[in-house]
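re: ur question from yesterday

yeah so i grabbed the chain u mentioned. its 624 aa long if i counted rite. heres the sequnce exactly as i have it in my notes:
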Amino acid sequence: MKNLGTTARILIVLALLLTVRVAYLTWQRSLIPDLRPASVPLLPLQRASTDFLQQFSAAFALQVAVLWTDTSRSPLSLVHAFRQMGIPFFITVDLDQAVQHRHLVIFPDIDATTFSEAQAQQLLAYVENGGTIFAQNVFWGVFKPIFGFYQFLPLQTRQRVTFSGHDPILRYLDRPEEKEVWLKGRKVEDAFWTHGYLSDKSSEILAHFDDGTPALLGKSVGKGRVYLCGVNLDDVILRNQTNRDFDAHRHYVNGFEPGTDVWLLLLRAWYETSIADWIRVATMPHGQRSVILLSHNVDWEKAVRGATQFAAMEKQRGIASTFFIQTKYVNDGTSWGFFSGKNLDHIRQLKIDGFELGSHSVVHPHIFHMFPVGTGEETFATYRPYAKSARRGLGGTVFGEVRVSKELLDGEVPQQRTRTFRAAHLHVPPSLPEVLQRSGYEFDSSFTTGEVLTNFPYALPLELGFAEDSGIYEFPIALEDVDKQQLADLTTTALEVIRANDDNGAPTGIMIDPDDPQRNFPVEETILRSLPKGITVSTVENFAQFWRARDRLWWRVDVTEEPQTILLTVKAEEEVRGLTFEFARWIEAVMGEAKLSAENRQVVFPLSPAAQQVTVQLRYVSGL
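ran it thru and got these structure tokens back, copy pasting raw so excuse formatting
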């Protein structure tokens, strides 16, 4: 009985302690600051058009023809690739229309039901007369002699692709990380299907899989040339961009990771080397080569104080960056709320000083990618998430973290309109693109380049799927502080990544933690001081507006009666500055509202008004 009494007393004490803790936590949660949220309407989901034939129609001779052989499978991976590289293209199901153009992509496959024997001969004649074809998934035996293979071997276990040779299509793959890319991690057994095409010796092997079978063939046929890829572009473009790859990264962050980019650059080189007068939209504004997208995550009170110091330093240098602000107003098991009082004054001052503010969620949960989507009715008045620990939370939703943080930033910071989001701990739920769109956001920067294997921005697909885009644009992070790898120790590597992206015309996203200025000030200063010539620093949103306008640009080229003169017409959905076009040929003069670069192979539009056609006349240098 004595032991029973002791046990009872212990249980009573534990119950009392638990009661006190619950009461204390309830009291903590009740200490909600008096904040003024803005009204953030819940928008209906805007679905992108999936009528690819109407959206991407034929307009001029320099376009790449995409022959869509299976309309049940989305060509979104090619849409992304060509738009990202600024390559003109159209999509068609009409073979007769497709072969009127010099470049032809056959997508997604060729089997015994795709073409008739007569159409196969039509394609052979097309190449013999100077056309060029890029194809994948060729399974019909009639095409074996055309593409130069005698057998194909399908496998799900291939891990790497290694490029080699001197074909012009490989011209941009000049770094070790580009010459060999991963398809899956070493510990992953099965990934997606690939096809090793065994050369019949009439074709050249331009890449191998790790099992030794050819991954890319090239063959000259008459005056033209064909290429056959053993990898499905869906699996190395869209799969990567939606973070659905099979651990195909060598670096999560803080390393050059071009696993998606090599396929974009491959298509760019194919376009540029197959025609003498190619034209494309450059990836950078005003004729630049690259840009730094500089940002800081403000995700606790100490980071607020550090942010003001970084802002002062950057303002002195004449640059601006983006501060992603956590709007934490609840006290929980991880930290106190800090979005109030003097901290809020500091955040307002960042905006006054010309810096850009984005959202970095409300409670900054480690398990954000596991949060339920919510109802869309979450507001500051009702949303009370609670994190018991870094990896345990109650009451949180994706809509709550996205929508309420925008309410508070827009309501408490004068002149603020929050358009850009960064997920807590860069953990992205599949519902995020839809939630961002319906909450009034336009841009996101939540993936590292190691997760999506690309440094180029891209349209973020709805539900992180393969079918349609969400209207949100993604801007990956190449360099940042992580727990085991401080950026301060990787300055040399950071500059190598920046130079690699500079070579490819890609931006470099950098996130520098502001909570420890003593450690990270020298890092940022060293990087800024050592930037290659011509690279500038931009906020995320400023560059994002340019990229979106560029990505959605309508343009065409018309010939004139004068053989050396063409007309270039552009129409942007929104006002955009610095649109730049690159040309294969040297340009002698530009007549109209555009300027010729010093190298005479770029034309820059200083200002393209929204929804207005602008036409300029270009005269090529005779004989070049």
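noticed a couple things. The first strand starts at residue 64 and ends at 68. also Residues 1-30 form one domain.
anyway ttyl
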